[in-house]
Design a protein that fits this description.
The complex is a heterodimer. Chain A has 17 helices and two strands. Chain A is about 60% helix and about 0% strand. Chain B is of the alpha+beta class. Chain B contains four helices and nine strands; from the N terminus they run ααβββααββββββ. Chain B has a three-stranded antiparallel β-sheet with strand order 1-9-8, with no helix packed on it. The N and C termini of chain B lie far apart (about 70 Å). Chains A and B meet through α7, α8 and α12 of A and loops of B.
Chain lengths: ~425, ~190
């Protein structure tokens, strides 16, 4: 699709040739993820995670559709229907645990995928649109994950819904009206549960649609690579199939092993015991925590404890949404023309600090609000914003990058110094 | 018209007659009118789609709650349910009333006196929603032996908001005092909320 030396689809089989004339779907697949898509030859295993995210979404859609055949979205019976899936439905426990842990696996691979993008500068020109669509996918995933967590109608489900819809009541004047409109009542109840189920079923397909746009936007400039240097000629690329289909299959195997460990040996590791207690609108669990993948954002929300011009609550909600919306501006906040952090010594260090900062935020998000925890959360939240709004623009202007290789091929050959490409392939 | 972008010289324009036509043309007017009318129709269809999300009639119907206060001893509190939300009813002790009145309004985030938050002559009956004004958790403090927080009123375990004995916000992220719903004393020991 992207380079003139891309292989052309030429079916030999008469049936395939007939199909190609009428409805060229095999041609589309060939050009998108087949031999017709030339990809830089030097991709490392971090480039597996896009495909892994796609696999995780497929697992979620398949298990989700099956679970919907046994689940009832009614406040009176929802909790019971989940228990019946766990106890009575054939292989129901497997499907539900796969869906619940599949969500964690999906978020995990997407976080690594985003991290790959931050490290290797995947958000920079000419791939800004790929990044922007990626942030949209991330937002859709978060909405879907939240609404899915409400469906079992346990204590954490209910109070999670209460807290998250409570964000909207922070909006001045119309906030409370919007909250009641979203819930269809004064507190989460049947109306809310039903609409969450409807949207939880819908959004994954919307996500799949945006993923198609994400891949489309990627295929116009073509994939990036660990050096961040542009593809200069045919010697810099290999066809996606069989080279990266094989490499992705290795990654998929590892992904499925980790998934299986979680699913079969510790299916409740990432869940919360309070969600095995049925929703009770009159009793808040002693300690409400979201799922692990929302903890850093929850920590930012909790960090605002004093009014400053606006109420503390509104600041918290603005900062939490802002921390994600900020990512939309990343391609323009980082003006450095060097993509890969391998050649940006200062950026690389600050990125490592940001990663640490996110782990601190994750800890704070799950911890009880003691004074030193709140202070730590405030410092870590401030650093998160400082990284993107202050450090990144300054580093991009002042940093002296290391010399870039002249081409992908040169970088690959330098790694295997003294060996030609064919010999190195045999040696490894 | 010829320009830098369009190198057709003047007088040889491909569409010479357009200069004499009124702008918008009659045909444009019909187009605009038709699309605008369809737009009005689309908006009319969107309205019920938005409105269906609002609380339905059966949800709105559960709007009042009757309470019997005779069993609540001073210092004690109960949790009731009002519009499917928790309702705190608390019989304040004289010390708690004094503590609430000792606070000067200027140091409050949401300045209100205890008298404004209770009924005249019934200052000991503090009736509020049990919904933290931060993000809607149920604060602790209404049940026996629950943590009442540093100000002796209610304490929200979710994000650490602390309320005083008049259920006013004193510390933490919540912006407002616990909401006092509309209610009337129908007798000395019964109230109707809502």
């Amino acid at each position: 699709m992207s380079f003139p030396w891309a292989k052309h689809y030429a079916p030999k089989q008469p049936l395939m040739r007939w199909l190609d004339e009428k409805l060229p779907v095999p041609r589309l697949v060939y050009n998108a993820v087949g031999a017709g898509y030339p990809v830089p030859r030097n991709l490392n295993y971090f480039w597996n995670f896009g495909v892994l995210a796609g696999a995780a979404l497929s697992i979620q859609i398949i298990t989700g559709i099956v679970l919907a055949m046994h689940y009832a979205a009614n406040g009176g019976v929802a909790f019971g229907s989940i228990e019946s899936i766990m106890r009575d439905v054939n292989a129901g426990w497997f499907l539900r645990y796969a869906h619940a842990n599949g969500a964690s696996m999906f978020l995990l691979v997407v976080y690594i995928h985003i991290g790959r993008g931050l490290y290797y500068g995947s958000y920079k020109a000419p791939r800004e649109m790929v990044w922007l669509l990626g942030v949209v996918i991330f937002l859709l995933m978060m909405a879907t994950a939240f609404m899915g967590y409400v469906l079992p109608w346990g204590q954490m489900s209910f109070w999670g819904a209460q807290v998250i819809t409570g964000f909207f009541s922070a909006i001045p004047v119309v906030g409370e009206t919007i909250r009641i409109w979203l819930l269809g009542g004064f507190a989460p109840d049947n109306a809310a549960l039903n609409r969450f189920f409807s949207l939880h079923y819908l959004l994954p397909f919307v996500t799949a649609g945006v993923i198609i746009l994400h891949i489309w936007a990627l295929h116009i400039p073509g994939s990036g690579n660990p050096t961040g240097v542009d593809v200069k000629g045919e010697q810099d690329t290999v066809p996606f199939h069989p080279y990266y289909t094989a490499k992705d299959a290795v990654g998929l195997g590892v992904f499925l092993l980790v998934f299986a460990l979680l699913l079969f040996f510790s299916p409740n590791l990432l869940g919360h015991p309070d969600n095995y207690v049925e929703a009770n609108p009159l009793s808040t669990p002693a300690h409400i925590v979201p799922e692990w993948y929302f903890l850093p954002f929850y920590a930012i929300l909790k960090s605002f404890t004093a009014d400053f011009i606006l109420p503390a609550k509104l600041w918290g909600v603005l900062a939490m949404f802002g921390s994600i919306l900020l990512l939309f501006f990343l391609p323009w906040l980082d003006s450095s023309p060097i993509r890969s952090a391998n050649f940006r010594p200062a950026y690389r260090k600050f990125l490592a600090i940001l990663l640490l900062d996110l782990f601190v935020l994750g800890y704070v998000g799950g911890a009880e609000p003691r004074p030193w925890v709140i202070l730590m959360g405030q410092i870590a939240s401030a650093y998160y914003f400082a990284h993107f709004l202050i450090i990144l623009p300054i580093v991009a202007r002042t940093e002296r990058p290391r010399p870039l290789p002249n081409s992908i091929t040169e970088a690959v050959l330098a790694k295997h110094a003294g060996l030609g490409p064919h010999k190195s392939a045999m040696a490894s | 018209m010829a320009s830098v972008d369009n190198m057709v010289p003047p007088g040889e324009s491909a569409e010479p007659f357009h200069d004499h036509e009124p702008d918008p043309r009659r045909r444009d007017f019909i187009n605009i009118a038709a699309v605008a009318f369809a737009g009005v129709g689309a908006v009319a269809i969107v309205l019920p789609l938005i409105n269906q999300m609002n609380p339905s009639a059966d949800v709105l119907a559960q709007s009042t709650t009757e309470l019997d206060l005779s069993k609540i001893a001073p210092g004690q509190a109960i949790k009731a349910s009002f519009r499917k939300q928790p309702l705190f009813v608390r019989n304040l002790t004289p010390q708690e009333i004094a503590a609430a009145n000792a606070v000067s309004l200027s140091e409050l985030r949401d300045p209100q006196s205890l008298a404004e938050r209770t009924k005249e002559g019934k200052n000991n009956w503090l009736i509020t929603l049990g919904v933290c004004t931060h993000l809607g958790c149920v604060p602790l403090g209404a049940g026996e032996g629950e943590n009442r927080g540093p100000f002796g009123g209610y304490f929200c375990p979710c994000h650490g908001s602390a309320y005083d004995t008049a259920a006013r916000i004193r510390q933490g992220p919540a912006p407002k005092n616990l909401t006092v719903p509309e209610y009337v004393f129908t007798s000395d020991t019964t109230v109707t909320v809502g």
